[in-house]
Amino acid sequence: VGSLQEVPSNPHGCTEGSCYPATGNLLIGRAANLTATSTCGLRGPVQYCIVSHLQEPDKCFECDSRHPYDSYRHRNSHRIDNVIYLMDSDGDHTWWQSINGKEDVSVRLNLEAEFHFTHLIMKFKTFRPAAMIIERSADFGRTWRPYRYFASNCTRTFPRIPAKSLHQINDVICEERYSDIEPSTNGEVIFKVLDPAIPVEDPYSLDIQELLRITNLRINFTKLNTLGDDLLDRRSDVLQKYYYAIYELVVRGSCFCYGHASECAPVPGVNTRESGMIHGRCVCKHNTEGLNCERCKPFHNDSPWRPAEVEEPHTCTGKCNCNGHSDRCHFDMAVYLATGNTSGGVCDDCQHNTMGRKCEMCKPFYYQDPNRDIRDPRACVACDCDPVGSFEGGICDSHTNLDTGMISGQCRCKANVKGQRCDSCKNGHYGLSQSDPLGCQPCNCDPRGIIMMDAPCDQISGDCSCKRHVIGRYCSQCEPEYWGLSNDLGGCRPCDCDFGGAYNNRCMMDSGQCGCRKHLIGRQCSEVQPGYFCAPLDFYTYEAENANGPDVTTVHREHASSHIVTWTGPGFARVKDGAGLVFTIDNIPYAMEYDIMIRYEPEVITSVQLPSSLRCGNLLPTEQLYTVTLLHRNRYIQMSRPFCFEPSNRYVVSIRFQRHGVAHRHLTAFILIDSLVLIPKYTELPGFQGNAPAAEQHRDDMIRYMCLDSFLITPMPALAEMCSKLICSISSILHDGALPCQCDPQGSMSGECDKVGGQCRCKANVIGRRCDQCAPGTYGFGANGCTACNCHSDGSLSHQCDPLSGQCPCRQGAMGRRCSDCQPGQWGFPSCVPCQCNGHADLCHPQTGQCADCRDSTAGHHCERCVDGFYGNPVLGSGDHCHPCPCPGNPGSNHFNGLSCQANATSDQIVCTCRRGYAGSRCDRCAPGHYGNPEQPGGRCLPCECNNNIDTQEPGSCDSRTGECLRCLYHTDGPSCSHCERGYFGNALVQDCRLCTCVPSGTLESVCHEGRCHCDRQSGDCPCRDNVNGHSCDQCSENHWNFGQDGGCEPCSCDRQHALGPHCNLFTGQCQCRPGFGGKRCTECEPLHWGDPRLECRECSCDPLGSETAQCDRKTGQCECRDGVTGRRCNECARGFIGDFPRCVPCHPCFQLWDDHVCMIKRDLDHFRYTVEKILESGISPGLGDTRIKELEKNLNKVLDLIAEPFSCFSTEILLTNGRLSDIGQELNSTAVKDEELKRILNELEKELRDVNATVAHKQELLDKYLTSGIAVFLSKYNRESLQAEERCNASVSGPGSPVEQSNRTRAVTEELMNVKKDELLRALAAQNNSLNELHNSSSNGSCPESRCGGAGCRDDQGNHACGGEGCNGTAGVALGALDKAGNTFISVISCVQLQDLASLTQNVKNQTVNVLTKAQRKKEYFESNNKKLKDLIKNIKDFLNEEGADAESIEKVALQVLAISLPLNRTNLGQMIKQINNSLTNLTNVGGIVNQTSQIIRDAKELLENAKDAK
């Protein structure tokens, strides 16, 4: 039994390519894998009901699914496995049923392997679901994707899912056809994965295989179909009838084998063996294996595995080539592609020390023996390389390849290793090591510091051989006091640090930078940082002016550019004979000996006494006393020996001055002492001491360059460069660096000072090293320097002034800072006189005598006149004063609008000179261009805000009260002239308003008047009609045509599929059609074809002899036939014609009569037949009663009688004749109507001519106004109107639409109609006479004595025919009566010849039209003359502007007006229009008379020209 269960399902078979396993219901045998989330009665019996007809007694039942279904014991069990089969063994239906009222229910099938799923069928016991989703999983339930959505209303239930038909086979859509509430039972849902309506090009493509492949299938029911009662009542008894119930579920599919198996066996672990079960393990062919044949068999991987196709099985062919070193391989797609799709097998687990895709190479650390084939098991030999010096622990080249430089067995040395076995270091390297990736370390000797380049270091220790001044393991460092390692012979250079600027002679090895003292810079510390300086040797100078002592005065000496300043400070201390000075010294920087020097003028004996110094030693009193002689020829004296000073001590130096060689004091003897100077004894400093060569050189340089001597006298001479360097070194030692400049920011030009001495650059009249004090004779130290005192020599006691205020010491009677002013009330120093101010001021200018602060409203040099706003005579003695001007209020009030006023001596009136914007004798009204209420207190006049668009000098240019602009210029408008007037656009604020350029035929009619249209006042854009665009509305929008229509342009409406594009011809609207299509919009067939272009177009093939045109009706194909021709192709004779086409001749005239009656009868009979059919169908006559039927029967009998009447054709001919006569009468009436229409047109033409005359008169009036007023703005407007009027006049006398042309056409039609109708009537009468004669001749020749009226064939006594007569009503009588009527009608027709009156009337129309043309000629010449005059006027104005002597204001006004003129047409266009008018006039008659009539207009034009010249 077990072996039978292993037998696969019946094979479906294989083709030349793919194999097809058997297909069946995947549910069979998988009841355990089928689950549902809701089943009724699992926990106990529950009641449910059905929706049935009222006559069925049983409506509610019980569901108990606690036990599986059994047809005998558990028939009420409705588990999910019931859906696998439709019926049980007894033939009864079984089903699965969900819990009552539950909407979200899922049914899921879990498969043990991958299967092909083709379609699904569900048969429902109840309503089908209102919404459900079918989903699949191909990864055993980890992820799910939807197949299809179903809903009764897809848009509402699944709004994001498209509810449309399939376009692609894998589209996810929502369907509505399986979700209706009908039927209530046995409804089916069918889903096919591959919809037959969608063609599948490749059923084995990855997309299709992925679409069919499933491991799980899930059906989600999301909404129940109900009758709606559950919406109002959710009780359980209502919900008992709403649930899901399925009779049968079929999931069709097969095992998934990619076309490599035709049979399937059970999957291992699945023991179910049910009949019809589809198993999941493929029995693979084509050298494949796996549960789904998803891979090739071992060692068959040289080509890629692929799914089988219909004609190609894609067998896994070709065993892998492993050169005998392996029996396993795998497929690699990258290798397959790299080999050009020829081989993709890669060998696994290569033996015999081989490797590679085909085991064709030796493993690392092995190489191929050149004497053995690669298939030899001993082909690979071990490498012999030093593992310390070679790569990867001793690897060698595995084979020989000369292109890549490989030699079989050759060792690959590390970068710094050499030798056949890689066992020694290269030159310049040392320390062979296995851990070093490079093998050996580089010596790293600095090439600049070593002696030998070929062997820079020891190969064992790595020590380098260094140059003389180079040290370090790598010879990369300089010796102390050396720097700059280089290729020089010595290797490094000496530091050479400045002995004073640097702390020592050591420097940085790389840059040579020395260690500088404070504020010293440079590599050698020999330069001073900006803002700092080196102290000179006489830096410690103590001014005698600042010393203390009795009988000592300060003498300031002014600095003059013509004299050399030989002193320091402001001046000298003036010391009397026997007196002395005491100097206090407390700023010693360095403990050392200093030479004491005194700078002075004339001779005296001096004793200098100094205190003792603790550090420098306890000196005896005699050692602290200096006695020297100050000689007249010298200006300084140096003490005989130096003195030792220390920092942080306070020294007092007392000096007594006495005349040499006398014992008593002289009261008038004195000496001028400049300063006391301490000069350091520099030989005690480092750099100068000792016997070192550098020290000796420094001392020699100080003497050679006389560096010390430069500081003994004042001013100091220019220092030599060597002195500057040595002085800076000395200063750096004394002060431990450079000193700050500390230039006074107010007295100096910048913050920098001299490098030696520290002298700042002082501003004018500023002295001192720091520029911090004023020079003698100046004052007011500040940002601009100091100001010279300039004390007046006559009024001042001294040239010196107060240093702060600058006040000079004045003599008696002098005043002012400089002592150069008179006393108050006087002027003219030094000859002071009283001020002359007419009693209106007390003070005056001290130099000019101009009075200051005039009182009593006076002004002037002597207060001799009234200030503005007052009038009178304030001169002393005149008896008058200054009075306020009444303009209209007093000055100082809020009602004073004047500048000044004056009294008129004759009228004794006050006349005000008004402020700008005011006018009137009292300035009580606003000037032109201003507005306000100046007559009221507090009122004022403001400029009218008209944006410079009015003439402010013109009265009334704006409202004087409101300020509203009234006379806007430059085509502006508005209360503020802030926008362009209608018909103009632009920026009114810059006087740039231009005429709108709208094209009237494209602009909305509502904004156009008399040929002028309004546009947007800002942009100039015109309001276009529909589908019209362009700045000027001058073109149709894209894809539109027919410009100039009232409704705008029409859309092209070209067919999107049949036209080359959406555009069309702008004038005809014709679209550009694709080949095979035609019609205006390409919606029809091409020319000479007909039919529906979407289906088929057929050729018209109209017969050229019988058709009017070659084009037939585009829909029906019917050709337009000539008279007497019929047929679709117009190739047959028409009804009523006889003969062989194309020779078709009309039938006898009686045929038409009979044919008309027969057609009418046939139509009536068809109607009767239709009515009878309706009666027979429904039994009811539609809209017909018995009366109507009887009436119809009566009429039918009459028709039958009429048909049977033997001589009815005669009466018919007579009736036909009467009908024709009636038609002639109607045509005559129509002619009369046309006559009335012509009269109406002529009346309208006369009205238009009267309007033209009125327009001409109006234009004459406007032209006169223009020529007299000079307003050039109207020029372009009236010129345009004149051209438009001219066009209307031309249109009224020429062209296809003119009244004259219409009248001519009407006359021609009338005459033609008269001739045609006359001939037709004559032919008709002749035909009637012939018919009557034939009738008479065809009658028998007998006598009728008993008949008074005679009859057919009757003759009278003379043998003449006797038929009819007076009182006879027979056929002949009636015919004769008709003949008489015809004769009378003929007479009436003949009388219509009187229509010549109409021709006469037409001649009158022509004459009136000639008059119109005459007036048009006059108007043309009139406007031509006016245009010439206007152009002459413009030329004259321009000549005036070019003349010399014209004032600027007039030129500006005239230029603005003239340049604003812009004619709408140029001279060339006007000339062409005139030429066209002249061409029209050549066709006219009576030109001489026209010229005579216009002579008066020419005389008027000449008068206008004279007026224009006068206006100029």
Automatic annotation (TrEMBL):
Keyword Coiled coil found: yes
Superkingdom, taxonomy of origin: Eukaryota
Domain Laminin N-terminal: 15-254
Coiled coil: 1228-1262
Record's GO cellular component terms: cytoplasm; laminin-1 complex; laminin-10 complex; laminin-3 complex
Keyword tags: Basement membrane, Cell adhesion, Coiled coil, Disulfide bond, Extracellular matrix, Glycoprotein, Laminin EGF-like domain, Phosphoprotein, Repeat, Secreted, Signal
Protein name, UniProt field: Laminin subunit beta-1
UniProt organism field: Nothobranchius furzeri (Turquoise killifish)
Gene designation: lamb2l
